[in-house]
Amino acid sequence: PFLIQQGMIARTPRGRVAMPAAWAHLGVPMPADRASSPSLFD
Question: Structural domain tally of the chain?
């Protein structure tokens, strides 16, 4: 629940997915499939 509240994880029909804030916090680039495909929240 904390990571969802902080905007790092989103609950989706596919399950939990990492949001851009999580990737930035970890210092890891987003995978190409997530970075290039628009989602419901874009």
Answer: 1
Please give the backbone phi and psi of residue 20, each rounded to the nearest 5 degrees, phi first.
Answer: -55, -35
Residue 33 within any structural domain of the chain: no
24 falls within a domain: yes
2-34 pLDDT per residue, tens: 999 999 999 999 899 999 999 999 999 988 775
Query: Left, alpha or beta for 3 (phi > 0: left; psi -120 to 50: alpha)?
Result: alpha
37/26 Cα distance (integer angstroms): 21
What is the amino acid identity at position 26? L
Does the residue 34 lie in any domain? no
